[in-house]
Amino acid sequence: xxxxxxxxxxxxxxxxxxxxxxxxxxxxxxxxxxxxxxxxxxxxxxxxxxxxxxxxxxxxxxxxxxxxxxxxxxxxxxxxxxxxxxxxxxxxxxxxxxxxxxxxxxxxxxxxxxxxxxxxxxxxxx
Length: 126
Description:
This protein is mainly β.
């Protein structure tokens, strides 16, 4: 079965950095766009960043632009999220998700994803 396993979360101070990883198995990884989402307590889950199947196309929400970088290594079936300049508002559980996307449009990347990981906690202290 498909498994997405996130790692790399933890506690970091404001201004610090973390690199999240998501290792995928049970699917043809290179056929899927990969997204990072987050859910903070009391808030809706929100999209953070998406990479196309090749990594050649990426999308970031405004909160992630300039601070976060999504990348992927199809040989390792892994997607990454490098997070810099973290602040307490970034505190959340971060999830990776996989989706077959045939056209890298806003509508496509915002639609429901096929597979989800269990999440990794990121806590940013002030």
